[in-house]
Request: fold
Amino acid sequence: MAHVHADTPFAPLGIAVLTVSDTRGFDEDGSGDLLAERLTEAGHALVERQIVPDDVYRIRAVVSKWVVRDDIQVVLVNGGTGFTPRDTTPEALAPLFDKAVDGYGELFRQLSLASIGTSTLQSRAVAGLIDRTLVFAMPGSPKACATAWDGILAAQLDARTRPCNFVAMVLPDAERCASRQAPEGEAARQAVES
Reply:
């Protein structure tokens, strides 16, 4: 179980939100609204928000543009993770990942089991690291976005969460997780040996 350490400072992240939909505009984008609201309430900055159609190349184009920006450390993608012919978000993102975060999809499906039962199998929520930018994709319903943010992302994008979180992956000056640091005696020994 994760714990928050009060003596570790909060580190705000720059986050972009991408909604994948053939039918929604900003007036109908309840999922994008929910994510924007949750991340700003948590103390992070909403750097950019966009809507693109369910198209592999348009999704890749936006994400590729965002991951090279210094002011964006996290990209939240909602929509296009189902099994219809137009659902291509996982196919768009997976080739871009340097490292996949397999546990994200597994945990998302476990959390959503309580509310949607075995239909959770049809969620292809995926995540990965592209250079130093984290990308999390989730289904496009507001309820699914709330499950992802409240159940996973709020804690994992908070530098105070222990034993570990993702902040040190995207902010080079962030405090590393305790489990990733060498014990004090070990660090001294390594310094003497080098």
